[in-house]
Amino acid sequence: MTENKNEKLGWINGHWGIFKDLKVPINDRGLNFADGIFETIFILNGVPQLLDEHLNRWEKSASILEMNSPPSKEWLISLVEDGINRAQLKNINGVIRLNWTRGESEQRGIDISKTSLHSFWLEIDSYQPNFESISTIISQTERRNSFSRLSSCKTFSYNQGIQARIEAKNLGFNDALLLNSQGEICCATTANIIVKRENNWLTPPSNSGCLPGIMRQRGIELNIIKEALIEATPQDNDEWFLINSLSCRPIQKINKKELKISTNPKEFWLSLLKI
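== Aminodeoxychorismate lyase ==
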C-alpha cells in the first residue's frame, strides 16, 4: 500500500495516515512540557542515512534523561522501511523524524508518574538538503548551558534556538551562533559549527555545550574533524559552516565580518556519508 506522496505521512498508535488525520493527546508531556526527544534522519535515494548512529544517540539521550528506552532498533528499522515505501521515497530524498515522550500527564504539574506510558510517533516527508550560504550574528541574548545534561540531548525544546533566530532575523541576518555560559563559541540554533582553518577542520568540543550532532561526530570518527576551542572572532582565511543531518551551509558573514567560501559544502557533506 502507498499513500499520496504529496501528503506528509505519520505513524502513531499502530496507524499510518496523513498529518491532519493523526492526533497527539493534548495532555502529552511532549506537548505540555517539551518532555521528549527526537531524531531527524535524512533519506538519500530511499536509504536512511546513518540510521544506527541516530538510534544509538536516541537511546543514549533517553538514558541520560531517565526516560524509558525507545522502541527496539529491529522494530524501528522495519517501520522506517514501511514508511519509505508508503511515502514513495524509494528513489528520491526525504526526511524522517522519530519522536519519544514520557506520554500523557496523569496529573497537573511537572512531577513524573511512574505508571504513565511513553509515547512514540514518526513523521516522514520528501526533502532536499540545503547547501546555500547564510549570514549570521553571534547572539547577545541566548547562551548554551555547558553544564546541563539537556545540552547533550536532542530534546523537543527549541525555544532558545527560536529566540536566537528571531534576534538574527530582526537584524537582517539568516541565523545566530551561540556562545556557551563561559563565553566560548558553541553552536548555532539548529546545527553544529565547523571551521576550516589552514586545511584543518575544527569544531567546538563536546563539553562546550553543543549538541553531539551526528554529522559532526561522523567527521570526528573519520579523523576529518578535530575538536578545538574556537574564538568567536574568525581568523583571516577561515571558512565557517553550519552542519547537521539535513544541511551544510557556508557562512558568508558573521556580524560585520565577511568570510570567504571556497570549499564545496555539498561535496564535503556527502564525503561524511561516504557517498
